[in-house]
Here is the input.
Amino acid sequence: MRVFLLALLLCCQLMTAAAANIPLMPVRDLKPGMQGIGKTVISGDTIEEFNVEILGVTGNEATGYSIFVRLYGDLIDKVGGVAQGMSGSPVYVDGRLVGAVAFGKVFNDSRYCFLTPIGKMLPLLDEPRELPEGWVPKGTSLMAGGFTDYGFQYLQEKLAPFGLNAVSSGGVGSSSVKALEPGSAVGIAVMHGDMNLGALGTVTWTDDAGHVLAFGHQFMQRGNSNFFMNKAWVLGVVPNLQSGYKVGNIGEAIGCFNQDRSSGIGGSEGALPTTIPVFVTANDSNRGQSSSVRVQVAEDEKLLPTVIDAAVVNTLSKTVDRAGGGTARMHFTITGVDSNKKPLTIDRENMFYSNDALLKNVSGELSEALTILMQNKFEHVDIYGINVDAQISEDVQVAEIQSLRTKNKPVKPGEKVAIEVTLKPYRGEEFTITVYFKVPKDHPGGQLALNVRGGSSMAWVMNLLRKQKDEGVPAQKKDTRRTLSDFVKSVNDADRNNEIIVDVAATHFNPDEVQNDAGLAGMLQGSPFKQKTLCDFIVDGEAELSLKVEK
Here is the structure.
């Protein structure tokens, strides 16, 4: 009862505030045949009107009401019906606000749609509202500004698992200088700056305190949320067989949308959302071209790794202006604090090669590191900034291990062994590098098998998996990461593709340090005796070497 009274009080307060601007019409007062008007922007920032006929009300008090309407008039004929981006367009009957354009049906006559009643939007109900069967929200397409064709295609691929779609806005442009009011175009963005990524919709309701309601349906239904509120400029409406959509610029950030629920999005002008600054630089060593990008990304733990990944790939695409293969050196730094305000840093550098799709393979580690931080199961993390630097070349900077040789025969526990590694670079002459391995000081004597591999080679993992299956060879040491700092350390210390790695072969692990259920993570972690040598090229291939240890 107490909860109900609090909710009723909040609703009454909101209704009172709304009434100060414009009177409202509850669904019980609506009758089929009533005529009204709607407001939206189809070009620039000029609010235009369209005609609305009330056809009826569906639903009930328990599941929520929806208002079935027909839109008509010159503006609707011009844009071909309800278009994405018209979501939130306020509809008035007899000068009273009824609700917001929200739902349409694919391949049906797009002049027919559902409104979300304003009474459902004002409190922004926590409970999901059932949609009329077969009907979908009119517009959650994201507009991407500042993306190359390649970067945009990559973005589309990355958004697909989230059920999101993007349309190109053609670039980052100017926006309206007018104050938001019902019918104005408004943006909700997850990224803002040299590149923009967000959705375009329509303002349903405002008040003198700067509160804004829009869309009439969810953006991504995050509930309590943290997205940019942006001014917008509509370039036009693009006809489509399924549903037309508005194209425009998401401009100046003016506030924060902090509610994202089934009945709409809500927020306030003024304070901006919590964001993470990202700075990306890229250099094409072959062309001598470079570029840099600065963006602010809203702190959304699910979407943030994907958005930053797309921003990095787009910056690389802009710099090299080509697809295809090559070699990249990628360095990124993530700074922040843990739940105890203790400084936290991931500092990672690696090299990557691909013969056909280099750009898609460069930022995977960054995305994984961000996912670990943002979605970790241990504690909340505040990220203060992300810096990325990438060097791109068309050259194939890869060498493969050919053979091994050592002069230390036999060796003793604790002794440092020099191993000569012969490598064959791509279309080049063989050369030799000397690496070192310290024999475990507690080795009991006898044969010691070593695996020498390139950091980019996964053949050893496949071989070990086969041996586990066919020969019963145990996996490596069990994953012992138990805290967030353990995971951060594992990212910083992970093998690099441009390293020569010497480790004890799986068949010679100390049984006391072996766990059968370690799985692939344990294999990648390696034994406690693993030693690495950094190179200025990517190392592939593997070989084994047997040492005789004298006790």
Notes: The chain is about 20% helix and 40% strand. The two ends are 79 Å apart (CA to CA). The first strand starts at residue 35 and ends at 41.
